[in-house]
């Protein structure tokens, strides 16, 4: 609900969306991204620069974690001690799993599914990686675009940006209730409620980190069960084989994301619930800049909630993201004004994400107003913190003018997404693509993670080179480009329209 220094120096989340092709941006969830690789993409660097980054993780016999060190085999041309890299010639990553650190199956193999489901995390100690930070700062200037800057592996978040975008639906019940409301005014209020509840779920660490920058063609699929929201009897809940997750039923909320472009790095994602006749489609790409002691992420794109039975759309944009305190303990905040508009009904909302003042003040504050068609005065005001309690009051006299709970994200359940086992996934699905990087990070073995990451990115570079030599073009699988937008190829509204037409024949 959301790719993506996509801050996401840990920015999770985020997705960005704009109300039209000129629309504004997202950077969070952008918020949730972590210094996203989108911005500092190792994929855009040479293998030498990647190895330079790897070597910075250690110094003479660099301590990676308690009781762990990386042996050095010399000094690189850059004067930095270089660790012994994993053998890449064979194309087979080294696997020496510690059963005490990682989940191991009875056959001795690594349980990747359990690894991804484990959301526990070790706090990032910037003090122990000061040389890396210094190296990063030596590459940048104030206002510089960070796309070509190489980010160190130790700040990665152990999941792909595409998976992060699924956090927009951490509260699927709030999303699905939009379709149940009878009045357009109520639906607009519920869209805002769902939207504002989406950001906190992407923060899985007290320290800002960044998800993996998706490779071109990468896919992520998942779904949610919502048993407390019955949507039909068992007989009617058959599999939606022409939907985004063909093994899921009509009473499940399904999600798919695809990395549709590498330059610029664009992610597209789509979710639908067949029985509720509601869907959400979005695309986002980001720009990031170095701001001195922080990183700013600007997301470009837009998202649209579609109510199929009503032919009603709600177009949303997203806030900017900022990675603060990058020299000490980095953290994420959102800033800027976003809009939510419904062209069919005329309802609209303006939400300000307020950045923390340098002295005093609170983090994660929001202030919002919801307007009726053609109204200059809002009928609802909202205030609070997107990471906690948000309250609202009516301004039009329809109800007592006092603040009441709009949504308290800490008192409502987060629904766990369900992902099919890694062993059953295709080679380009997120968890399978990044599984060895994830294992290395979980072990706190930065050497293992860095080399596994290099292998993934090197394969992408080789494929890009081959396409260039054969004059081939990349073809997306689930989304198609229309102007500056990316649209899911077979959205629910389109399929329902065809079903109605066929039923009349």
TrEMBL record:
One of its GO terms (molecular function) is sterol binding. Keywords: Lipid transport, Lipid-binding, Transport. GO terms for biological process: lipid transport. It comes from the Eukaryota. Residues 12-25 have a biased composition (Polar residues). Residues 1-32, 68-92 are annotated as: Disordered. InterPro entries: OSBP_sf, Oxysterol-bd, Oxysterol-bd_CS. One of its GO terms (cellular component) is Golgi apparatus. Belongs to the OSBP family. This is Oxysterol-binding protein.
């Amino acid at each position: 609900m959301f790719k993506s220094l996509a801050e996401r120096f840990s920015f999770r989340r985020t997705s960005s969306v704009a109300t039209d092709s000129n629309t504004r941006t997202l950077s969070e969830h952008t918020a949730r991204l972590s210094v996203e690789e989108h911005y500092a993409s190792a994929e855009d660097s040479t293998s030498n620069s990647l190895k330079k980054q790897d070597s910075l993780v250690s110094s003479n016999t660099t301590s990676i974690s308690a009781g762990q060190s990386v042996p050095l085999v010399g000094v690189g041309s850059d004067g930095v001690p270089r660790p012994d890299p994993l053998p890449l010639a064979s194309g087979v990553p080294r696997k020496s799993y510690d059963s005490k650190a990682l989940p191991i199956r009875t056959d001795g193999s690594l349980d990747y599914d359990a690894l991804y489901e484990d959301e526990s995390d070790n706090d990032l100690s910037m003090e122990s990686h000061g040389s890396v930070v210094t190296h990063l700062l030596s590459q940048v200037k104030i206002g510089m675009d960070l796309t070509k800057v190489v980010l160190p592996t130790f700040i990665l978040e152990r999941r792909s940006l595409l998976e992060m975008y699924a956090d927009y639906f951490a509260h699927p019940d709030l999303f699905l209730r939009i379709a149940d409301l009878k009045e357009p005014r109520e639906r607009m209020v519920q869209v805002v409620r769902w939207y504002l509840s989406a950001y906190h779920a992407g923060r899985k660490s007290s320290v800002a980190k960044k998800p993996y920058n998706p490779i071109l063609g990468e896919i992520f699929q998942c779904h949610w069960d919502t048993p407390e929201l019955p949507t039909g009897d068992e007989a009617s809940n058959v599999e939606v084989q022409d939907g985004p997750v063909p093994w899921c039923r009509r009473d499940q909320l399904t999600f798919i994301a695809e990395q549709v472009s590498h330059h610029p790095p664009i992610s597209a994602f789509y979710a639908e619930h067949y029985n509720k006749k509601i869907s959400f489609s979005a695309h986002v790409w980001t720009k990031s800049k170095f701001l001195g002691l922080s990183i700013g992420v600007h997301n470009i794109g837009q998202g649209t909630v579609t109510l199929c039975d009503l032919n009603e759309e709600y177009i949303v944009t997203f806030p900017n993201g900022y990675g603060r305190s990058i020299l000490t303990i980095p953290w994420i905040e959102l800033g800027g004004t976003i809009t939510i508009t419904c062209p069919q009904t005329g309802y609209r909302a303006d939400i300000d994400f307020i950045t923390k003042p340098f002295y005093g003040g609170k983090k994660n504050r929001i202030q919002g107003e919801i307007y009726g068609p053609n109204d200059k005065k809002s009928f609802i005001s909202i205030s609070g913190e997107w990471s906690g309690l948000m309250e609202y009051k009516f301004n039009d006299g329809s109800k007592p003018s006092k603040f009441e709970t709009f949504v308290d994200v800490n008192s409502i359940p987060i629904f766990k997404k369900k992902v099919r086992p890694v062993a059953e996934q295709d080679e380009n699905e997120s968890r399978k693509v990044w599984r060895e990087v994830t294992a290395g990070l979980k072990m706190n073995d930065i050497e293992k993670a860095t080399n596994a990451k290099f292998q993934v990115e090197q394969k992408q570079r080789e494929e890009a080179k081959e396409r260039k030599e054969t004059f081939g073009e990349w073809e997306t699988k689930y989304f198609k480009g229309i102007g500056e937008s990316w649209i899911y190829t077979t959205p629910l509204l389109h399929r329902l329209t065809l079903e109605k037409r066929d039923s009349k024949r």
